[in-house]
Amino acid sequence: MIFLAILLVAAMFATLFILIKGLVNMAGTTSQDLEGQGDGPSPRALKSQKLMQQRILFQAIAIGIIAIILMMLSAKS
C-alpha cells in the first residue's frame, strides 16, 4: 500500500512537471510560430503536442493508481 502511495505521488509530480514544461513552452510561442510557414506545424507546436500527450499519460497513470488504492481499501472493509 505504501508503494502505491509513493507511485501516486511520483505520478502526480511527473504530471505537474510536464504541465509546467508545457506552460513554459507555450509562453515562448512567437508570432512566427503562430503564423506558420505553410509547410506543416512548427517545431514548437509539435513539442507542445508531445508534452500534452505525456501529461495525459501521467494523469491516466495517477488515476489508475487511485483506482487500485480504492479497490484495495474497499476489499479490506
Describe the structure.
This protein has 77 residues and is mainly α. The radius of gyration is 18 Å and the shape is elongated. It has helices spanning 2-27, 31-35, 43-76. The longest helix has 34 residues, at 43-76. It is built from three helices and no strands.
Strand content: under 5%
- DSSP E strands, number: 0
The main sheet comes to: none
From the spread of the alpha carbons, the general shape counts as elongated
Instruction: Quickly count the helices.
Output: 3
Gyration radius (Cα, Å) is 18 Å
| Gap between N and C termini | 15 Å
Integer average pLDDT: 91
Given as residue ranges, the uncertain stretches (5+ residues, pLDDT < 50) are: none
Q: Helices and strands: which structural class?
A: mainly alpha
- Kindly state the percentage of residues in helix: over 70%
Element order, helices and strands?
A: HHH
How would you summarize this macromolecular structure in one to three sentences?
The protein has 77 residues and is an all-alpha fold. The chain has three helices and no strands.
Topology:
Layout: H1 2-27, H2 31-35, H3 43-76
List keywords for this structure.
mainly alpha
